[in-house]
Specification:
2 domains; two-stranded antiparallel sheet; 13 helices; Lysozyme; 64% helix; 3-stranded antiparallel sheet; single chain; mainly alpha
Length: 267
Amino acid sequence: MRTIKSYNVFNEDKKVADIINYLDYSINESVDIKELWNSAIDKIRNLSDVSKKKILNHIVASLLVFNSVTAVTNMIKKSDAEGRLKEIALGFVQPKDDKVEKLEEEKWKKGYEFTLSQKGWDHIKEEETLKLTAYSIGDGMISIGWGHAEPKNNSSFTIGQDITETEADELLKMDMTTVADGVRRIFTDWEKEGVDIKITQDMFDALVSIAYNTGVGGLRRSELIKDIKKGDYDSAGEKIKTFRVSKKFPGLATRREKESEMFLASL
């Protein structure tokens, strides 16, 4: 009996070590934390409570390296894990000291204080398929590069004209500066009205992505921006999912889901 018990303990310890190695290998700043959490929860389902607590502590510590306390807390609360596992995990999601709390507060800034992050830049390039030959989809515009568009009647490009990827990147930088300025101006105008609203980098990146796709004017007139102005971030995040989604362009629904998730990530 002692041999069997020793074997079982050894076997479980090995499983714990394997799961921790899996977490250490998988965690990075771009990982889908929901996917990693669900995968880890599935792996610990049949382990002892002691092992579960050890791994849950490691999961939480790993996720907090690249994610805010708020983001990890909300992800755990909204997950399908059993209540006891959530309770244990949430017990580990605590700021270690005043410095962590201060960093959390500093993530919230005036909208006009942000510039597009590398994460936001990469997201937009991922959503905008690169086209090195100018084309038109019949909307009165000529498009080229990473979604750069100009009115057909006074475009500097002609249909069929080619550019290099470097030139496409330069066009995107120019467009992103214009769009980001437009988003920042929304918050500047609000402050002039006496509206004190703060957002996070993820929220700013999501808004720039939406504005690049729909136009700054379209964003400014939207219901979702009105929700942000009222401080109702949850409602704004939900409205992003359906904003300017069209059956003509089915890919927009997927893009909006990503933008919504990005916008809500810090809540």
